[in-house]
Amino acid sequence: MALKGKKVIEFAGLAPAPFAGLVLSDNGASVIRVDRPSASTLDVLCRGKRSVAVNSKVPSGRELLKRLIVSSDVLIDPFRPGVMERLGLGPDVFLGKSGLNQRLVYARIVGFPRTSSYKDMAGHDLNYLAMSGVLSMLPGSAHKPNFPLNLLADFAGGGMHCVTKVLLALLERNESDRGQIVDVDMVSGTRYVSASPLIHRSNPATGRFASKRGTNLLDGGAPFYNIYLCRDGGLMTLACIEPPFFGVFIEKFIQALPGHSVLSDEWRDFPALAAQADRKLWPRLKQFLTIGFASRARHEWTDIFFETDACCVPVLTPEEAAQGFGSSDDPVKDISGPCLLNPGQHTKEVLTAELSVTEDEYERLLNDSAIGQC
């Protein structure tokens, strides 16, 4: 629990901000989510967090938020540029020359870059992924790419990238005793986590992403880096890029074909091993593998390639993966239901225990509609 003793204020937002707070919470930080008193939320990324409901439109509510932030190490701002400043809670209030908390790491997550002409526009993961240039490289049909849920922009380029920068800022604070603004935008973050394919794309000589979508090594073009349907409807992944691994795979694959039934005269002399290095043979190799995988059930192929270097494993459902690979200390092992946090669930607990708010003051805040509780 490396972040034990660190206090994080997370203003309620969508995917990237609560995910950043979740990662910090899972590693020991005390994370307090700030909700609006009238809010209803379906945020499931709440493990280990507490919620206070504060009305930022009421002067006493804004002052309460200042007190919370002054006592914290990290603030996560999920809003569009300028929102926190209009509330009187911008970074200058805390990190300026006479700032109230000059050790604060003030993390701001936005969608489009703050200096771009798109900065004031609404958007979501798919929009940021599109503007990053990465979406155009993802697998799909010849006419359009597919997208990987909302993982790349929201969670990798947004939430996890934010966590990385927050941790670096906390490390730097150990030397300078000063906090700093941490700026994250999901377009730039997506480009950063996609550095490898983007570099390959700009250097065609590497051969990784030089051709049209769906014809490259890692985007579905290579038959030995692909997904195949089994007889029972299950799926197997194949990722034997290195020739020795492909050699292990193809030997066991051909041996496992039931009675060599798919090796008709059409395929009997097909040079499967040599086909890996010959792109002209890739379509034929993919057809050969497709026919072969369809001859057995997923569990049979799983057993055949288990404990080998064939790089061939089954596609598991989330439930199967949690059952088979979730360790006793894995926080995501139990996927039976969401971890919900009611807005204002811990308002009184946090304010009285951590800000020394008295009973009388608490009642005044309630009467002033500055806070909410549930």
CATH superfamily of the largest domain: Crotonobetainyl-coa:carnitine coa-transferase, domain 1
CATH topology of the largest domain: Rossmann fold
Radius of gyration: 26 Å
Q: Give me the side-by-side strand order of the main sheet.
A: 6-5-4-1-2-3-10
* Strands, total number: 10
Main beta-sheet strand count, sense and barrel state: 7 strands, mixed
Number of domains: 2
Fraction in helix = 25-40%
Please state the overall shape, judged from the principal axes of the Cα atoms: elongated
SSE blueprint and pairings:
Blueprint: E1 7-11, H1 16-26, E2 30-35, E3 50-54, H2 59-70, E4 74-77, H3 83-86, H4 91-95, E5 105-110, H5 125-132, H6 151-176, E6 180-185, H7 186-193, H8 195-202, E7 225-229, E8 235-239, H9 243-256, H10 272-275, H11 282-293, H12 298-305, E9 312-314, H13 318-325, H14 347-354, H15 359-367, E10 371-372
Parallel strand pairs: 1-2, 1-4, 2-3, 4-5, 5-6
Antiparallel strand pairs: 3-10, 7-8, 8-9
Helix pairs in contact: 1-6, 5-6, 5-7, 6-7
